[in-house]
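User: Sequence recovery, please. Input:
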């Protein structure tokens, strides 16, 4: 019998790169040569470690990933590079696990690897994703231990943190410190600051920064910076200046993105100038900027605000025709508009049609339709929607439940108990509903009602104990 050729470390890396299933990749890594009588002799390369750690981290298979990382620590034949730890810290940051990210950062030296500003920046950014601002301060206060020089990325992360906390004074101080230390700001620095000032309504300072980045630092604003300023102007109903800024982009040959036009479309509807929308769409296409889902959603929202549902559905169909898949927001906007106008039958039909369009309704979709049906006293249809909601693990708002239960109590509908027990399992019954049900039991002398009521209390108690 021909002897099976063993997989080499180089071949293992190639196979891991080709394997898309992280579980199979893990088995391949752990047992590259399953028939080898001495498997511990396999010499893993750093590339193999890097590939399997990346696949497990992206799949959030952290328990398995941590075992591989521990193997890497003990494998003294391999000298790890800092990038692998930066990746791990990022995976933990995205999964909102700041303590694990900090632990990995602290342990980097134990892997025979030196920390540099790269891993410091990665840690700061991961803590920022987790909104761990106090921990960011602690890391920054000890930053000299890890890196001799700071770069623009470090300051950009700190400025972003200050802006997210709406502490623009501190953001400005960080910017000044950046200049004092001789670190040159870049487009991201100014974009972050401009976004912070626009978000907090200080458009004067935002435009002052734009002028300064162009004149003092010779940095051209990018599409994202322009989009931020245009959004800020539309927010304060200054559509004329927003259009001028868009024209400046065209004049300076800044590549326009769909976000700019989507914002201007929303602003046109808000300003009562919907007649300008077709021109914006035509110009958008003429400039090679294809409308995306956000653009169409802006159109749909504008038409629904105008109660022009025919045009809203027209935009939805055009979206599909252009190969731009509607998302749940597209449907929720129309369903919400229809329910506000008490067109609940059409809203319910659209809800039922969503799966056929390969778009799954979310909790907002169900809550909107359920409330709309209760609002027009169509409780039979509401019960059907509630059943589907409960099956999918969703619950309505307490105000909707109260209105629904109130009607069923008045009608002495015995199906009420089925819904109540399902809602109690999800701890979704408030005081008002409890009072309604209690009054129903007090009026009804039947032992059946009392038995159901006791069952409801037991279900609620179990639900509460499981959550605590």
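Assistant: Recovered sequence (468 residues):
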């Amino acid at each position: 019998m021909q002897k099976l050729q063993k997989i080499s470390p180089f071949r293992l890396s190639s196979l891991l790169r080709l394997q898309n299933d992280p579980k199979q990749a893990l088995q391949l890594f752990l047992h590259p040569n399953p028939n080898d009588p001495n498997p511990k002799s396999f010499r893993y390369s750093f590339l193999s470690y890097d590939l399997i750690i990346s696949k497990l981290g992206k799949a959030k298979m952290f328990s398995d990933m941590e075992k591989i990382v521990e193997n890497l620590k003990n494998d003294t034949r391999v000298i790890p590079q800092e990038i692998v730890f930066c990746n791990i810290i990022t995976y933990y940051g995205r999964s909102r696990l700041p303590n694990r990210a900090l632990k990995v950062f602290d342990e980097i030296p134990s892997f025979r690897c030196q920390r540099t500003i790269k891993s410091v920046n990665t840690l700061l950014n991961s803590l920022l994703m987790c909104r761990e601002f106090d921990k960011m301060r602690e890391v920054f206060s000890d930053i000299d231990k890890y890196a001799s020089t700071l770069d623009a990325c470090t300051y950009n992360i700190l400025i972003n943190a200050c802006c997210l906390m709406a502490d623009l004074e501190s953001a400005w101080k960080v910017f000044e410190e950046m200049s004092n230390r001789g670190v040159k700001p870049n487009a991201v620095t100014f974009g972050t600051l401009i976004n912070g000032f626009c978000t907090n309504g200080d458009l004067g300072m935002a435009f002052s920064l734009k002028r300064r980045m162009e004149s003092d630092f010779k940095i051209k604003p990018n599409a994202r910076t322009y989009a931020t300023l245009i959004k800020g102007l539309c927010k304060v109903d200054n559509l004329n200046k927003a259009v001028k800024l868009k024209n400046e982009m065209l004049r300076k040959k800044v590549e326009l993105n769909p976000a700019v036009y989507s914002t201007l479309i929303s602003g046109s509807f808000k300003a009562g100038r919907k007649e300008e929308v077709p021109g914006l769409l035509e110009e958008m296409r003429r400039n090679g900027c294809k409308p995306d889902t956000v653009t169409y959603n802006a159109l749909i929202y504008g038409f629904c605000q105008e109660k022009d549902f025919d045009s809203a559905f027209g935009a939805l169909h055009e979206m599909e025709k252009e190969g731009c898949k509607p998302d749940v927001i597209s449907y929720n906007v129309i369903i919400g508009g229809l329910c506000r106008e008490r067109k609940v039958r059409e809203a319910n039909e659209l809800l039922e049609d969503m799966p056929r369009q390969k778009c799954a309704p979310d909790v907002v979709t169900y809550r909107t339709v359920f409330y709309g049906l209760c609002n027009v006293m169509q409780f039979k249809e509401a019960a059907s929607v509630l059943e589907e909601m409960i099956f999918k693990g969703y619950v309505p708002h307490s105000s909707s439940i109260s209105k629904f239960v109130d009607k069923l109590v008045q009608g002495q509908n015995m199906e009420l108990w089925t819904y109540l027990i399902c809602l109690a399992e999800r701890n979704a019954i408030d005081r008002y509903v409890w009072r309604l049900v209690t009054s129903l039991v007090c009026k009804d002398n039947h032992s059946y009602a009392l038995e159901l009521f006791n069952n409801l209390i037991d279900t609620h108690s179990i639900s509460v104990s499981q959550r605590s």
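Residues 1-78 form one domain.
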